[in-house]
Amino acid sequence: MFENIEKCSLCSAPATHSFMNINGREYCRCDRCMATFLNSTHWLSPEEEYAQYQDHKNDLTDRGYRTFLSRLAHPLLKKLTPCRSGLDYGCGPGPVLADIFSEAGHTVSLFDPYFHPDQSKLDRTYDFITCTETIEHFHRPAEEFARFERMLRPGGWLGIMTCFQTEDGRFSSWHYRRDPTHVTFYRETTLRFIAAQFGWSCQIPVKDVALMQKPLNQSCRKETRIGAP
Hints:
alpha/beta, 10 strands
């Protein structure tokens, strides 16, 4: 029988259980939202994380990287009316995605805790927020998604791209798990759970991409909030 460990950092379920131990690294599972977490004792320090992120290649001229990001950009662009205001949250050192949206006529602000740490960008509201290859780094995902809810205008879109976790039998060998900066892993059902807690709609237009929309009518929002017991 699995041992109950700590409160879920995504949905605040009273306890997660031990899911898998891989080479001394403990992973936990929440049976409420189905998220999987790396135990916090194995998190990298901020200095170690920064060193890892500096190795990421986000070149504006890299066609392959632009094609990769277009998997989120293209379906989200179809949802937006002209001249919208957006935020690329967790943009990294090279704001390639922001460039794609700017080329389409939208205005995009940048935020990244290491490379574009202007906190004033988090005090504004936006018509859309993009978050590509970022939510798997969240140490406190409930706080991050609550921040998105505050920053999204009514009718606004949140575009997420992350590798969805699927078969548990493949978890130990999964390339995504082996990145030492990845600490939270989401199933499709996890992302739909998050959307439901805020009363957002959730679409999965292509593999590993979720588009969530905040309702125009604020009275439609559910009273339940992510992180509530």
